[in-house]
Write a structure and sequence with these properties.
heterodimer, A: 376 residues, alpha+beta, Phosphatase 2c, domain 1, five-stranded antiparallel beta sheet, disordered C terminus, B: 227 residues, alpha/beta, Rossmann fold, seven-stranded mixed beta sheet, 7 helices, 31% helix, 21% strand, globular, disordered N terminus
Chain lengths: 376, 227
């Protein structure tokens, strides 16, 4: 397989240059095959720092790269134009491959034993989302699509009907994609050197033309809604002069909002850029009209309301100050009268008057006041 | 609005639960210094990752032993917004005095319950809620000593209920944005927590003694990297 395709790109944005914990995506393309994958080293779980010949690296940084290299090597051995991929067997094989590669790399690091005890901290932890595409018959337009994943990185397909998520997020709380944008749920399954994990698999067929992509959460986790993620894909395609420009514009739009590293591999199958643009033009218009424009209108309305509220609060503060200025002379009139000079201090302070007897338990404060009044 | 083109707002709340019994005398000053340093390190970690912390608050729950010290066994501060209320926070921490407690164990689980039931912030687009607990003793079972009336509604009856309180995704601390950092010896309460609860990092020691720089960095990253 070559690394060149009529419509394909990949990017890997590092939030901190040189310390990105997403590995470079896999993007391999042949006449009847495609292979795309992303790996997101998990900084929260893999923050342990190791000394390596390349300098100090976190477990997250190392884990995503070890996983990427091992998976790419193994998948290139497994897939071929004349061989039908057995999805379940491949998932099991990928799991074994990852376990072995990560365990070997971890052993090489000769890390001192940690004094920490935690289900949160992992050795070389990473996510994975991989798509393997195989044309089912020579010259045909049907593709067998295999998604393999662990964690919350995702694979999507984009057809004339819109974008479809084809991996299920491995999260402890089972929310939908909109809920997951704000829930910050811990992951229920991730690849690592020191814990058991599963490589999930899903198989389906697609008719070309279509777009396949894999993305780490930095690409889709910081948009306002799943609809806005599709809008990012489609609006940047609409305005792009070629595949590289599409990738650059998409990365730029994602990076503008992302609070994380972001990696993506994308492959258009069955047509060129102009063909994709034509195919997706009706969907682009529909998405704008039905989903994005109404939400943008609402957002603008909220912004106007917030601005109006801020203005109103500022006006209130100013008005209170103005009215107080008017009211104050009367209020402080007595205070302008000179104070009586204090009497000489007694040798010892008189004893405090005994406190009024506390109201009976259960009596309300009103009842207590009335009772006191009667007594007087 | 802030999630589209304007960058995210990060809000971090940290509650320090500190054992202030007499046995902490030799190390309490170090624990106080660690508390004052900890939030600074979390903020720096986030800033280095390009995450601007817009709201940072800290508060303290100091504990002794309800069985031995009665109502004086638990004391809480309000949240202090930093850096504006740094002086008040430092004054509260520096005012902690090691005394009481009797023999081991101490009322650490009650303090943890009060910490979990803090008035956590709802500000920001991404939130991290962190509890850091230091003690040199195992924990008294919940219910061993009478909880002051004003606090009893915030302290569960037993360990199972405390576990539910921590794991409850609809509870005070939500699903994934919480972290519990334990600097506590192996023993009743603490070992159970680190083996069962999610989102916990436990350094089995007397209030953090012997913590390596690497492990400290791992702890700070477990908070800052996943916000």
């Amino acid at each position: 397989m070559s690394e060149v395709a009529p419509v394909s790109f990949r990017f890997n944005f590092h939030k901190i240059p040189g310390q990105g914990e997403d590995s470079d995506p896999i993007l391999r393309v042949g006449p009847d095959l495609g292979l795309l994958a992303v790996f997101d080293g998990m900084g929260g779980a893999g923050g342990t720092v190791y000394e390596t010949p390349d300098g100090r690296r976190t477990g997250a940084y190392l884990g995503s790269r070890v996983a990427r290299d091992a998976v790419e090597r193994r998948m290139l051995e497994l897939i071929g134009p004349s061989w039908i991929l057995d999805g379940e067997a491949t998932a099991a094989e990928l799991r074994r491959t990852l376990q072995t590669a990560l365990a070997e790399r971890f052993a090489e690091l000769k890390a001192p034993a940690s004094g920490l005890r935690s289900k949160l901290v992992r050795q070389l932890p990473t996510t994975m989302a991989l798509l393997a595409l195989q044309r089912t018959a020579a010259g045909g337009s049907t593709y067998a699509c295999h998604a393999f994943w662990a964690g919350d990185s995702r694979a999507y397909v984009l057809t004339a009907d819109g974008v479809r998520q084809v991996t299920t997020d491995d999260l402890r709380t089972s929310g939908d994609a909109l809920h997951n944008l704000s829930s910050d749920s811990p992951m229920s399954n991730t690849v690592s050197a020191d814990t058991d994990f599963a490589v999930r698999h899903r198989q389906f067929e697609l008719e070309a033309p279509f777009v396949a992509l894999t993305a780490t959460d930095g690409c889709f986790h910081y948009v306002r809604s799943p609809m806005h993620f599709e809008d990012l894909l489609l609006s940047t395609l609409r305005d792009a002069r070629d595949a590289a420009a599409w990738g650059a514009a998409l990365q730029e739009r994602i990076v503008a909002v992302a609070g994380d590293d972001a990696a993506m591999a994308l492959l258009g199958v069955g047509t060129d850029l102009e063909g994709l643009r034509e195919l997706l033009a009706p969907r682009t218009a529909l998405l704008q009209e039905r989903y994005i424009a109404p939400l943008d209108e609402l957002d603008a309305e909220v912004e106007r309301a917030e601005k109006a509220l801020d203005d109103l609060r500022a006006r209130r503060v100013a008005r209170v100050a103005e009215l107080w200025h008017d009211y104050k002379p009367g209020y402080e009139r007595v205070l302008d009268t000179p104070e009586t000079p204090p009497a000489a201090s007694p040798a010892a302070a008189p004893e405090a008057a005994p406190a009024a007897e506390a109201p009976a338990a259960g009596a309300s404060s009103t009842e207590a006041a009335e009772a006191g009044s009667d007594a007087r | 609005m802030t999630t589209q083109g304007q960058g995210l707002q990060y809000a971090v709340d940290i509650v320090f639960a500190i054992d202030v019994t007499g046995s902490m005398s030799p190390i309490l000053d170090q624990v106080k210094a660690n508390a004052l340093r900890f939030y600074d390190d979390v903020q720096r970690n986030l800033t280095e990752k390009g995450k601007n912390v817009d709201h940072l608050r800290v508060r303290v729950v100091a504990f002794r032993d309800l069985v031995h010290d009665g109502e004086g066994a638990l004391a809480e501060s309000p949240f202090f917004a930093l850096p504006g209320e740094q002086d008040s926070f430092s004054a509260f921490v520096n005012g902690l005095v090691p005394e009481g407690g009797g023999d081991a164990p101490e009322s650490g689980l009650e303090a943890l319950a009060l910490a979990i039931n803090s008035d956590w912030t709802g500000a920001g687009d991404r939130r991290r809620q962190v509890i850091v607990l230091w003690t040199d003793q195992p924990a008294q079972p919940l219910g061993a000593g009478a909880v002051p009336a004003g606090l009893s509604g915030r302290v569960p009856a037993d360990f199972s209920a405390l576990t539910d309180m921590w794991e409850n995704e609809q509870g005070a601390m939500g699903a994934g944005s919480k972290r519990l950092i334990l600097f506590a010896p192996d023993g009743s309460g603490w070992s159970d927590i680190s083996s069962v609860w999610e989102n916990v990092v436990h350094h089995p020691s007397k209030a953090g003694e012997g913590l390596s720089d690497v492990d400290y960095g791992t702890i700070i990253d477990s908070i800052g990297n996943s916000v």
